[in-house]
Each structure stands twice: as C-alpha cells, then as structure tokens.
Amino acid sequence: MKDVHMEKRRKVILDVDTGSDDAVAIMTALRSRELEVLGITTVHGNLPLAYTTDNTLRVVELLGADVPVYAGCPYPLVHDLLPGRRRNADEEPKETVVDGKVVAVHEKTLPLPPPTRRPQEEHAVSWLLRTLKASEEPITLIPVGAMTNIAAVLRMDPSVKEHIDEIICMGGGVHVHNRAFRSETNFYNDPEAAKILVNSGVKLTIVCLDATHSAWFGYEEADRLRALGTRAADFAADMLCHRICAANLTGARREPKSALHDVLAVCAAIDPSVLLDVRHETCDVDIGGGVADGMLMTSMRWRYSEAKLPTYIAYRADGEKLLAMMCSRLGRAD
Ligand code: BDR
Ligand code: CA
C-alpha cells in the first residue's frame, strides 16, 4: 500500500473570497496531507475584501494552522469602470430580510471568534509573483473567488507561467448559471480577469457550476460530517446547513440541498478523478457588458478544429467521492 506521507506533497496556493463554501475549501486543503498550502490570498467577491480577509483569518485560526494570509485586490480589473455595468465591489452585499431577520448565503462575518493574527503586510499579487518566480517546483493555483489576483500576476509578468503547474479554478457555468442571465458569480465578478486566465496558455481546469451542482449535499450529509466530531467537520456541517437554510428562506432554491462549490476545486487538486466528464474545449469569456457579461463560452468544434489551449472543463463531479474526501480530511484529529 502506498504511504501518502512519504509522497511529495503538491504545492498549492488558494485564492479565496471567504465566503461560506470557501471556508470548507480552506479547511479541507489545510487538513490534506497531499497538499502543501504555501499561503492563502484573498480577493473581493462574495463580500468586500475586508470581510473576505477577516473571514479567511478566522477559518485559519479555527484550525490552528500556520499558513500566511495575504490580502489582494479589492476591485475587479476594469469591470466597475463602466457606469451601470456592475455594482461597486465596496458596496455592502444585498441582504434579504425574512420575517424581520437578515438572511445571506455568505454572512459578512463568519460565526467564529475574531482573529488574533493579521494578514501579511505584502500585497497578495506581489507575494504571488515573488513566490511563483522563486519556486523551482511549479505551483498549483486554486482560485475560487473573482480571478482578479491571478490575472494581475499574469499581466505583470507573463514569464510567471513557467512556474505554474496548473490553475484549477471554480468559476463559470456552461448550462448552469447563478448570477446573471448567463453567468456564474466568480466569472461575473471580474469577467476580464477570467478571460485572461482562459487565454493564458496555462493549463486551466475549470470546475464550473455544471460540476458543482451535480454534487449537492443535504442535512444527511451534514450529519455525516458532524458525526466526525472535529472542529473542522463541525464547522463544515454548520456552513452546509446555513447554505441550505439561507437558500430555502430566500427562495433561491426549494430543495433542502446545497452545492459546496469551492471544495470541489481543492479536491480536484488532490485527486482529479473526483471530476467526471472533463472535456478539452475551446473556451472564452464574454466581456461585452451586455446580458452575457461574464459568460463562459465553450465549443469543442470552433472552426472545426481541436482546442488549441489547455483549457479543460469539468461537467460533473463524483459526489460520493467528494464527500468521502471531505470526511477523511475534515475528520482528522484537531
Ligand atoms: C462561487 O461563487 C461564490 O459565491 C462561491 O464562493 C463560489 O466560489 C459559486 O458560483
Ligand atoms: Ca468562493
């Protein structure tokens, strides 16, 4: 039997907009022996940057992990420059009031103690650039918020590509959309950044909504997590229950289930077989500012040719395997 402890760990950097599902992704990565998390960078997205950074620190401290957190870009690259194209990233998130109570899928502040540590002084983008260039071993990037930080790095110095093993992003949707008419939240929050990643020539695995929505979890799965009895599993169960409840209360979904999007990208870095129906396709992202703003476009048969860039879209996930992977990691002793 192979001993994973003796195997080389995959060097990864998480880029997050924490966020209820980001929290589960961070904990799973930090509890995975197969991954060496070099650092966590934060970005605008689910919430303004100050909240996503604070929430990330809370999650890291819950696990007692010694991993640096770097605050990144508070705004999309250019998306907010055109009046009316989107809300400003600083704007308070829209909240729904149900029976006098504020309900949000991503609460501004996660229900965890305030962090005692602060983010690092250095900006996430300069740290990413410096760390990537200094690394002899290519690093895997896992962006699960707006793609702004990673796109900025690729723009600052394209030679950094040589130091990236793969980008595994959670973003986009081919047949499933959750933000605008044809868009998924992470791509919609910075369409130009998503487009830069897609056209970069770096191996890009897109864990899109089609895949994450094929692995919904309900209260039964939350019970399985809670039964593990660790802080991480317990908090993951809390996040899952919160997401189900918030989506049901706001009327976003009727079924008592939720997708934990971001953790699927982390698990794909550990074991790609958790992704099913992965297709090598020609992709692009709409930046037109119209109804399809931020849309992930894809065609296997564009000009009847094979896809030229290494862009791979995962259309489905193995939900049982994903849950098993989460349980085995989140259940590790505190
Ligand atoms: C993605 O958008 C964010 O709300 C979630 O954290 C996830 O990364 C899903 O569309
Ligand atoms: Ca996210």
Tell me the layout of helices and strands.
Elements: E1 10-16, H1 20-30, E2 35-42, H2 49-62, E3 69-71, E4 96-98, E5 101-103, H3 124-134, E6 139-143, H4 148-156, E7 164-170, H5 185-189, H6 191-198, E8 204-207, H7 209-212, E9 216-218, H8 219-226, H9 231-250, E10 257-259, H10 261-270, E11 275-280, E12 282-285, E13 296-299, E14 311-317, H11 319-330
Parallel strand pairs: 1-2, 1-6, 2-3, 6-7, 7-8, 8-14
Antiparallel strand pairs: 4-5, 9-10, 11-14, 12-13
Helix pairs in contact: 1-2, 1-9, 1-10, 3-4, 4-6, 8-9
How many separate helices? 11
Mean pLDDT: 93
Assign an overall shape: globular
Q: Supply Rg.
A: 19 Å
Distance between the termini: 26 Å
For the report, how would you describe the main beta sheet?
8 strands, mixed
**Which molecules other than protein and nucleic acid are bound?**
beta-D-ribofuranose, calcium ion
Describe the structure.
This protein is of the alpha/beta class. Helix 1 (20-30) packs parallel to helix 10. Helix 2 links the parallel strand 2 and strand 3 (69-71). It has an eight-stranded mixed beta sheet, sandwiched between helices. The mean pLDDT is 93. The protein has helices spanning 20-30, 49-62, 124-134, 148-156, 185-189, 191-198, 209-212, 219-226, 231-250, 261-270, 319-330; strands at residues 10-16, 35-42, 69-71, 96-98, 101-103, 139-143, 164-170, 204-207, 216-218, 257-259, 275-280, 282-285, 296-299, 311-317. The chain binds beta-D-ribofuranose and calcium ion. Calcium ion (CA) binds at residues 17, 19, 21-22, 45-46, 144-145, 262.
